[in-house]
Design a protein that fits this description.
3-stranded antiparallel beta sheet; alpha+beta; binds L-tyrosinamide
């Protein structure tokens, strides 16, 4: 392979391994039930019941909290899933992504 070819291959590999991570941040509100937030943390973010309870209470008390940290596309999908599940259940729960 030529030097140029190797350089292009290397660039493609680098792009595929983008190390940037994103936080999925849950926002508090007055209407979503604590049980629903715990359910979301267990189902979407694979948290144990104890961890899910702790994160939910952190958000409830502090206004926001980190549900998990993931590569961009995973973080965006999880945030969208949270919003869709909440809308379907009639809750205003919001999740946003932020660079970690
Ligand atoms: N504040 C909500 C209540 O008192 C519970 C809640 C916690 C809502 C975390 C959203 O991201 C949230 N029912």
């Amino acid at each position: 392979m030529t030097e140029t070819g190797d350089a292009i291959k290397e660039r493609i590999r680098t792009e595929k391994r983008d190390p940037t991570l994103y936080k999925v941040v849950l926002l508090n509100d007055d209407y979503t039930t604590m049980e629903f937030v715990i359910h979301v943390l267990e189902e979407v973010f694979q948290k144990s019941p104890a961890e899910a309870y702790q994160i939910m209470m952190h958000v409830h008390v502090n206004g926001r909290g980190i549900a998990g940290v993931y590569p961009w596309e995973v973080a965006e999908t999880k945030a969208e899933t949270v919003i869709t599940m909440a809308r379907d259940a009639g809750f205003p729960l919001k999740a946003v992504t932020e660079e970690a």
